Every structure is written in C-alpha cells, then in structure tokens.
Amino acid sequence: MKIKEEEIIRLMSGEKSREKGVRLMMDAYQSRLYWHIRRIIVDHDLSQDVLQETFIKAYQNFHQFKQDSQLYTWLYRIATNESLQQLNKMKKMQKSDEDAEYHLQNLVADNVSAEADEIQVLLQKAIHSLPEKQKLVFNMRYYEDLPYEEISKILDMSVGTLKTNYHYAKQKVEDYIKSNYTE
Questions:
Q1: Residues 51-77: what's their mean pLDDT?
Q2: Phi and psi of 129, rounded to 5°?
Q3: Using an 8 Å Cβ cutoff, are 145 and 173 in contact?
Q4: Of 10, 5, 12, 11, residue with least CA distance to 58
Q5: What are the residues whose beta carbons fall under 8 Å from the beta carbon of 39, sequence distance 6 or more?
Q6: Residue 125: its pLDDT value, please?
Q7: Which of 23, 107, 142, 180 sits CB 3.0–4.6 Å from 42 for a disulfide?
Q8: pTM score, two decimals?
C-alpha cells in the first residue's frame, strides 16, 4: 500500500496529474472510508454523501496535507469530521429525544439484513448507545483494527485516553448485549 500511497501523493501534488491522483485515491480508499463513515452515520445514502464530501474536501485541501502522517490517516480524519458534522445536522433536525430514539431504531432496523441474527442487531444498538467519542474509538479499533497510534492522529487524542475510551466502550457493549439478549 505504501507504493500506491506515494504514487497518489505524487499525482495529487502535480497540477496536470491531479485528476488521475483523485481517481487513484478514490479507488484505493473508497471502501474502507465508506465503512468507517457508515458505522458512524448508519444510513447508506447519508454515508455515500459524506464519503463524497470527504473526497471533495481532500481534493480541495490537498495542499494542506503535510505528509507527517499516512495519507489514509489524513483521509480518516476528514471522514470522521465530516461524519460528526452530519450527525450534528441530524441532531438539530430532530425535534425530541423520543423522535431521536425512534429514528435510531428505524435506521438500525433498516440497515440490518433479514439474515442477521439478534446478536448483530444488539451489537449495533449497543454501539449506537455509546457516547460519541467511545463510539468512534470502538468502531475504529473493533471494525477497522486500527492501531491506537493511528486513531490518536485521526481523533487528536492521547493513546491513554483512547485505550480508556475503548475499554469503557467494550464493557458497555458487552453489558448491553448481556442484559438484552434473549435465547
């Protein structure tokens, strides 16, 4: 991946090769970024919109990429920020806590396939019940298997804080599943 990343950076840095660089960047990172965003946003269509915004921001602000981190770390940070902005927009549009809970349950239910078992549904509900920071850390560590050092760069948090957030998130998820699982 390092060679491809270097090629993307080289192409994105050149005025004439920028379009090709964007296409290569999208091919390389689209799937991983989509699933990162999807775990935060849940809704497929909104996730697609946020993904598109992420690539637009990366294109427009590539001159700000200092190359002191890996390209995907920079892209994950943009995707995370765009996702959080989208969540804030969604929260502002919600009229009450009751409406928010109803909406969240419908989103989770709509996005879980018919074959999915009860544990998967509970896992998604448990994750969405977590505080924002714990949810982000949990998703990046559990689903993306990102090292704490990379998550630290993406979220601009210390490794110790991340480990604490992940520990508490994992415990809350386990407790939620145990208390809501019926055989």
A1: 91
A2: -85, -10
A3: no
A4: 12
A5: 127, 139, 143
A6: 85
A7: 107
A8: 0.64
